[in-house]
């Protein structure tokens, strides 16, 4: 009786508090709607003014219109589950925590932005260190409705995961990543709020929230360093377009839209690259020596002639000796400008030399007045434009585009052999391909490298970019003075030049947003760069990325055990040494939120047996179902697959089954799945809608997750990666609930560790 009475009392107290929370949350939505209406009205008013007034008035109006529109977009984006927490502290204060900060007309704070210092205790208070928190409340919402709440007890000795966290990690996956703002855990929060300067490496096993942390850190940095980052922007780089699609809703749901997001293969403006099918080729193109190969390739396009020749200018023959060209080349190289700019020095030198000859022929006695200033300029022009001269100058020092040069380098055997004496004949054969081949993702760093060595073609860059760059160069000194910390501090002394810092200056506001301009400009330097799945990157890719933040402000997240290639790096120190020396710091994530322990243990066993450096994170959930290995013969394989899919779809209503295989096996699987599940097969691009069977290669599945994973022929995945188990390890750890593997191999053909399942 007492119990019943007690529980009735508790229930009614809970309901009362729930209603109170609902009332408060309704006030917050009232405020959100009010603000939105206000901005909408301001926007409508400014749009109604149309195209009147001077150019300056119009451009001011455009800026305001953009500002209002951005704010409206932000308010729309945070509408879903606006509030998720409440903190009651020992000073009798109580604050609600949400996606953005809100105040009323009297500037009384109604809602604290999760990134504000006052919200930090929501994530950091623990039983051992409550930080003045008496009660931490998780408010669970669907859309605008408060469904329930849960209070954390900060009692010493209690370390249980909150219900909010458990329901978040157990929920069926939608196929696109969601934010974790309501349930960020303490070790994650410490990384998100870490200082911006320097290179921070976040190492963590599969499912530890590295991607989630990277995205929330981007939002946190933009909030905390808004002024600085508004000028330079933040770049977030991931491994593939499918991955970028998977994560691209997270930042908008946090009210941030200004981050430049790009796969590493599409980082060079104007190039949409294709995958590099053969890992051996990717490995060669990623080697540090490729920098020298590109440099050589440029030098080989600065060449003299084998013997003396004659050029025809205005009916007169002028002689050109190889030694004269060599001298002009030396001169141009000494200018230390990029190839296309140094060409001007070369051309000037040659024209001057030819002019001297011509003048001596036209007017042997300099004092006779025949060659005055106007004549001189006319004659030089004539020489420069003479067909023979142009042909000769181009032959000796051709203006080059980075894409044109890399295309030639990879398709002309002699050019490649001369530029890459350090590569073996087999390696050269691997690199060679037909001219005009689509650029692959491992060509992109070579193109970027070439772009640095070549410089812009003189008429290549749009005028706006040029004038903006010039203006920045003029004031680059000031950028150095304005740095908030000394260069020595961050270990880049002597490396930063005025040119590199030029882009840190106040940009023109006449075209596009910072993100648009940054995306279009290969020389843009960002205020901060975040690299996800960083274990995959080659030396050449790192060079390309470090060029984009000369101040070395980086967050690098990855898991060395998940690297694919046989050449994979085994420690961050070796990877980063050439770029940051020892000036980097390491944080680790230790809890796996995605994959149940039963599955991670099996995956870790495979990785360990292959000698990979695995740090097995502690899985938050034990999992209901052990991983399964099904042996079948080739004829029964597809039936077996369909059966597994059916079982899994029933087991996880609304869930997503991910079928993972090699590229080669995936073609046949696509046919089978499409014919059995018409309009239900999802390849990761476009919207998922009602599609519930996903098909991906092990490479494409990097960073993604599925409720049920079915791996077809695990031994093929290892063989396709040249014997490395990284890809298989990744595939096995994509599961949030169940893992099944289907194989036609015999026990002894399976990768070590799998036979124990
Ligand atoms: N604090 C958290 N609250 C709720 N869900 C979380 C939390 N941290 C991570 N998750 C969820 O766990 C899953 C794995 O996270 P994420 O993809 O960021 O991990 P990862 O370390 O990048 O994984 P991998 O290296 O295997 O690709 C995601 O569904 C993510 O939303």
TrEMBL record:
List the protein's name: AAA family ATPase
Q: Which organism is it from?
A: Yaniella flava
Keywords, alphabetical? ATP-binding, Helicase, Hydrolase, Nucleotide-binding
Keyword Ribosomal protein listed? The answer is no
Domain of life the protein comes from: Bacteria
Positions contributing to ATP binding: 204-211
InterPro entries, per database record: DNA_helicase_UvrD/REP, P-loop_NTPase, UvrD-like_ATP-bd
What is the organism lineage in this UniProt record? Bacteria, Bacillati, Actinomycetota, Actinomycetes, Micrococcales
UvrD-like helicase ATP-binding domain ranges (all copies)? 183-596
